[in-house]
User: Fold SpoIID/LytB domain protein from Candidatus Amesbacteria bacterium GW2011_GWC1_47_15.
Amino acid sequence: MRRLLPGLLLFTAIMATAGRWAQVSAEECDNPGALSDSVKIQQCIGKYNGILDAIAKANSNNQEELNRLKSQVLNLKSQINSLDKRLTELSGDIFDREVKVGVQQELLAARVRTHYIRKREDAGMLIFFSSNSGGEFFRDLAYREKLAHNDQEIIKVVAGEINKLNTQAENMKRQKESTAALKVRVDKQAGAARPDYNPGFSPAFAMFSFGAPHFKGMSQYGAFGRAKNGQNYRQILEAYYGNVEIRKVNVPSVINTSAGTLAFEGNYMKGIAEMPTVWADRGGYEALKAQAVAARSYALAYVGWRINNQNAGGRICTTESCQVYNSGKAGSPGRWGDAVRETEAEILVSRSSGEVVNAWYASTSGGYQESYSALGHTTPGFWDTTSDWTRWADGAWEKKGESPWFYKDEVGGRSVGKEGRVTLVL
Assistant:
């Protein structure tokens, strides 16, 4: 529930957006036959126009994704074909060299035999008795030694060339196999990108979603977008959690977790791995500070720590089921450690209940934050955008934060791992 990047999304945009518009438009839109007020009719028309705009934008995104994928596939095919052409040229070169080396191998065999015979002969005595003088003897002996030396050098060169050629031929074979496998993968990917792609199971349908997984509390990418546009961490937290006070309190020195008892500020908080530390260097440092306050508040609320009763006895898990703690990050937190230190002991306190806020958060909510109540505090429900709600996607803070999950279309389920950006038909 608290992962930065959620898994597969299970809500269609039509159902998700229609449900949200029902909260802000007249309920009579669900029963058109009962409408008698022209103003309400106009509101319903606006509602349905907004839904159609969302669908049109989604279809436009689909087409852009498809065109980009097709371009990438075509470019990749061209590169692979060029590679295959070059491999063919190199194969021809190797074949020519194999022919030449084949001739050299025959010569090599003859030279080896000759060299072996010479070494077996008592050449010195034969030359001595056949020579007319001592000078002639030494000249012939030197000549024969030179021939033997030349034979040895030629044997080395030809043998080395044969070994080198065999290695290159083997490498070429593997490269051709790899290129063939690449072609198969590219063709398969190109097929999967088609709108009429058959996934191999039926019935098949397409769905897409805006955000995941619970749409409540703080949007992390929304916080990032707000920070990049100049909002500080207090403004970000007040936007998402409503009527709250950011208060410095006496937090416990330790916290019980599924990984053991940890120093609360010095270890646990520094190891919270719920937001990319690199955001600090991309204009999102205030988002990290907002995350630190939210994570601190959530942890204290989870283990039972309360403003008027600070003897927390509960235990929090260190996985995405609660909030993620990473011991490696705790040892080297970087700018995240700075955000924790600069907000040390600061938590969210509800102005209405006077209690610590159970601060939910998630990666992306699709531009609409749903209200929730916990520990006497109720968060606001609102369109998280600078645009009018009927065009909410244009100015969504999550879009300004470049969330890859603001709009997502899916195929299949998480268990089978069939995530994709394709449209399937029945």
Summary: Residues 1-27, 409-426 have pLDDT under 50 and may be disordered.
